[in-house]
Amino acid sequence: MKMSKDFLWGGSLAAHQCEGAYKEGGKGLSISDILQKCDSHGERDIFQGLQEGVYYPSHKAIDFYHRYKEDIQLFAEMGFKCLRVSIAWTRIFPHGDEEEPNEEGLLFYDQLFDELKKYNIEPIVTLLHNDLPLYLVEHYGGWSNRKLIDFFETYCRTVFMRYRNKVKYWITINEINNLLNDDYLLLMFVSAGIRLAEKPDNKDIIYQALHHQFVACAKAVKVGHDINPDFQIGCMVAHLSIYPETCYPEDTIIMENDYKMEYFCTDVQCRGYYPSYMKKYFEKNNIHIIWGKNDQQILKEGTVDYISFSYYVSNTVSHDPGERKNKAAEKLIKGVVNPYLQISEWGWTIDPVGLRVALNRLYDRYQKPLFIVECGLGARDHFENGTVEDDYRIHFLKEHIYQSELAVNEDGVDLIGLSTWSAIDIVSASTGEMAKRYGFIYVDVDDYGCGTYQRYKKKSFYWYQRVIATQGEELE
Ligand code: BG6
């Protein structure tokens, strides 16, 4: 079984996790620049600003800003057809609310895209990946403020114009649905710049911020298509497949209700209006949000061309959650332990079949092309003799690719590509560690920025090279 010739095989990155150079080229501070590292199962602290003598992983990250040419050469050697990157808003507008962009920042991405072009690697560009300008948080309250819609529009218009002949595939906001997970306060902060000390009783602020993001994304789609009708502009959600624990009917109702919350964002961004179940949810939970005069029209006119999503884990739900929670990752994975699945060292369930389920569900619901833009295994690698024998990563990816192939070839899902997380080792978003590695290329740097930053090919590098060369036919 294999994928078609034009299938986009590749790997993904995010600016704040790879670039470093946090103050170079006129860049402003982003919210990720003030996040420290935490322990493997902890939650990163959210301070007001930079503290003396503290190590901040994003400040140097893996130094991609200075080493992107070397890295892209390695991606090309693997045969990448695409590379997902994100633009740091703070390189283009350091505070986020300026009228004129920072030319040095624009130039950096010009050079990056030119380098990709040299190897015929298609850039897949996320406009906002957890690195909102910090200034917008401190002076406007992040996405809870409607003004951010305009700032985002100016930013999008600027980069769409500048790169209109260099980039075709765009992604608006990374994992936009993460904002709904209000058990996980770090996600509130990185998704919308909302600083909360505890889970809010009233969810208005969350849904208002999300509404602003919906409107901003819809506007971006419209502006982008006006600038270049060939643009393909997608939404991006974190997708968890969900199972009922038993055939007790209530378990299925709980599963369906959880799925609805998961589909809320894609429903709005693909269909252009709020679904009826959400109106009920707002009523029941006394949630009130303010709509702008033209918001309805904007949402309608700004539906996406495709759906991109990350897939890491699945979730099992029960009418009786009891105590059988997966403690290691309970903020991310709700519900009960699934006895059929193994978990990663970070407590994330490993479920390749869940990816086939996700692809089928999303395609059935929307009939829009899908793009897996994140999927991978975070693991501790043992670097020895200049390489890593990462058979566990190969196994993980092999199984997930196989399930994607079944979804395409057996089930008829329209899948544009698969861009794994991550192309090369980068800083972990949830913990700030380097120890949680996902890449095909090992980067010699530890959790505190010590190391040579040299790159080494892992065993999975050669494996993925073969997979791409055979269009996914040879997975062994
Ligand atoms: C996704 C994010 O949620 O998961 C990435 O879009 C992130 O930025 C990835 O890195 C894996 O999570 P983590 O915490 O293991 O890096």
Count of individual domains: 1
Major β-sheet profile: 8 strands, parallel, barrel
Number of strands: 14
Bound molecules: 6-O-phosphono-beta-D-glucopyranose
- Determine the N-to-C terminus distance: 13 Å
Query: In CATH's first tier, which class applies?
Result: Alpha Beta
Task: Describe the fold and architecture.
37% of the residues lie in helices and 15% in strands. The protein is of the alpha/beta class and 476 residues long. The protein has one domain: Glycosidases (TIM Barrel, Alpha-Beta Barrel). The longest helix is centred in the middle third of the chain and has 24 residues, at 204-227. It is globular and about 60 Å long. The mean pLDDT is 95. The structure holds 6-O-phosphono-beta-D-glucopyranose. 6-O-phosphono-beta-D-glucopyranose is lined by residues 14, 17, 174-175, 238, 310, 374, 378, 421, 428-430, 436.
Give the secondary structure arrangement, pairings included.
Elements (H helix, E strand, L loop, with lengths): L7 E5 L2 H4 L45 H15 L3 E5 L2 H4 L10 H16 L3 E7 L5 H7 L6 H16 L6 E5 L11 H8 L11 H24 L4 E13 L4 H23 L4 H9 L10 H7 L4 E12 L24 E2 L5 E2 L1 H15 L3 E5 L8 E2 L2 E2 L2 H19 L5 E7 L19 E3 L11 E3 L1 H11 L7
Parallel strand pairs: 1-2, 1-12, 2-3, 3-4, 4-5, 5-6, 6-9, 9-12
Antiparallel strand pairs: 7-8, 10-11, 13-14
Helix pairs in contact: 2-4, 6-8, 8-11, 12-13
